[in-house]
Write a structure and sequence with these properties.
The complex is a heterodimer of chains A (123) and B (131). Chain A is mainly α and 123 residues long. Chain A contains 4 helices and 1 strand, in the order βαααα. The chains are: A mainly alpha (123), B mainly alpha (131). At the A-B interface, β1, α1, α2, α3 and α4 of A face β1, α1, α2, α3 and α4 of B. Chain A: It comes from Haloferax profundi.
């Protein structure tokens, strides 16, 4: 009898989305670290330098996509870990709602910050 | 027919001597995931100082980066992120049915490569900070 070596519920799509976002994040997170710690140094960060990057549509849209996928991947991972630890019933529903709201707040705040740097959508 | 794999409770710490490489990989991946999602919220909160103006953002980042403890935490964050990335790649391959028979060796390789990358990055992460 085959065993399922996974924390995810069978038949759900959360597993697939977790893997798809992971494949994207592996590349973009590595790029993010390399750009902001090796090509540029963290102690040299200024508003003007962040602004110069964010004013480019390619970089701006990549960072927005990065924010959304990282939030989904992180929060979905937390949710699945909690379900795997036995979360169920009304507590599961409540945790799902709280994590959903927290994700939304994080994404809205991140987009507002990106817009502050770029001075609006850089089209 | 398949059945769910029951790992037992990792909170039962006395079992740690029984853990295999795959179990440690699962625990480390979960731990690094919790750290990264916690950091994501903190990161956006700090970056949000840009909403208060250019000076507020620049001063906040440069003040934080002048602290040795922040630089050391950044090295820790790098270690956590690199392991999560490398072990995540290992998981993607295992999910695709590639290298399942060598999953323990690939876990050890993830750990060693994480160590090498982090040690090699320490000078960059600590440059320009005063104690």
């Amino acid at each position: 009898m085959a065993e399922r070596y996974t924390s995810f519920e069978p038949g759900g799509r959360r597993w697939l989305w977790q893997r798809l976002t992971a494949a994207f994040l592996v590349v973009v997170l590595a790029f993010h670290f390399f750009l902001l710690h090796f090509l540029n140094h963290a102690d040299e960060v200024t508003f003007a330098l962040s602004q110069a990057r964010m004013e480019q549509l390619t970089y701006f849209s990549l960072m927005i996509l990065f924010l959304i996928t990282a939030t989904f991947h992180g929060v979905n991972g937390v949710y699945n870990a909690l379900v795997n630890m036995g979360l169920s019933g009304s507590r599961k529903t409540a945790v799902k709602a709280i994590l959903g709201v927290a994700s939304l707040v994080l994404i809205v705040q991140g987009v507002r910050t990106a817009l502050a740097w770029a001075g609006g959508v850089p089209i | 027919m398949s059945q769910s794999y029951n790992r037992g409770l990792i909170e039962d710490f006395s079992r740690w001597r029984e853990f295999s490489a795959g179990m440690w990989a699962w625990i480390f991946h979960k731990f690094t995931g919790w750290v990264l999602v916690g950091y994501l919220f903190t990161h956006i909160a700090v970056l949000s100082t840009a909403l208060s103006g250019a000076a507020a953002y620049t001063n906040t980042i440069q003040a934080l980066e002048s602290l040795l403890v922040v630089r050391i935490l950044e090295v820790g964050l790098l270690a956590v992120a690199v392991f999560h990335i490398l072990n995540g790649l290992r998981l993607l391959f295992v999910d695709l049915g590639v290298g399942l028979e060598a999953q323990d060796q690939s876990f050890y390789a993830s750990l060693i490569l994480t160590g090498v990358i982090v040690i090699a990055s320490v000078p960059t992460f600590l440059s320009g900070v005063s104690i």
